[in-house]
Amino acid sequence: xxxxxxxxxxxxxxxxxxxxxxxxxxxxxxxxxxxxxxxxxxxxxxxxxxxxxxxxxxxxxxxxxxxxxxxxxxxxxxxxxxxxxxxxxxxxxxxxxxxxxxxxxxxxxxxxxxxxxxxxxxxxxxxxxxxxxxxxxxxxxxxxxxxxxxxxxxxxxxxxxxxxxxxxxxxxxxxxxxxxxxxxxxxxxxxxxxxxxxxxxxxxxxxxxxxxxxxxxxxxxxxxxxxxxxxxxxxxxxxxxxxxxxxxxxxxxxxxxxxxxxxxxxxxxxxxxxxxxxxxxxxxxxxxxxxxxxxxxxxxxx
Length: 302
Ligand code: CP
Prior knowledge:
It is built from nine helices and nine strands. By secondary structure, it is an alpha/beta fold. It folds into two domains: 9-128 and 287-298, Aspartate/ornithine carbamoyltransferase (Rossmann fold); 130-284, Rossmann fold (3-Layer(aba) Sandwich), CATH 3.40.50.1370. It has a five-stranded parallel beta sheet, with helices on one face. A four-stranded parallel beta sheet has the order 2-1-3-4, sandwiched between helices. Helix 7 links the parallel strand 6 and strand 7 (203-206). The radius of gyration is 19 Å and the shape is globular. The relative contact order is 0.17. The chain binds phosphoric acid mono(formamide)ester. Phosphoric acid mono(formamide)ester binds at residues 49-52, 123, 132, 261-263. Phosphoric acid mono(formamide)ester (CP) is lined by residues 49-52, 123, 132, 261-263.
């Protein structure tokens, strides 16, 4: 992991994923350590973010590191027409690692090819969100006490949702059975189903989930990604297609947990929030420990 960019979750082997999760356990016990005293980390967000940027910045601050960067590229020379290549090459001179979110699929891979420091992909369009996946897996392992042989329901926008794409790849190391619940317009892309076919893993596709939810160990809800639709009318057709409500949890497994990368819009009713099965806010907290593990591993400090 040392000095390697994290662009796709497929960049990490099963052993490396497990190593990050073990380290995150240690950071949860002690998140305040002066491990990044000599490091400057750039957080470059070309797209809006609350959790990813602020949990990275919290992770860095709690380890004594310095942060440079921006949350809105309109205040940078990108506005004057500077290319991504020139932006990344320049900022590489000022820091030890770059965390980047960008709307274009493949932008993180491109940045990793032109940068002189490691790049951590904080989301590139509808493609990948590998650090979210690691915190999701940390949350799954913590609540289920295992990653093996689980039944995971992915619900909502499986076409544009980068978090489910990354999570599918990583959980395919652990003999997961997948249930994909989406409207036909937002189905899991064929490339990911082919990945499961090649590994001989089971998956099922449904348009309704109330009938099957009792089988789930994890229900992973997702927001319909309005920003990825070119036609607003198409978004309007599907925006409220699934809403999880408290009464729907009655017949679910005792230890089932509801995850959501957040932000949510309407897909989880607020009457679910106080239920023991709602885990999404703790999941967001786990992002701090997991990102501490990622940063220190890449910087070769842990
Ligand atoms: N989960 C996630 O990526 O949230 P933000 O868009 O708020 O960073």
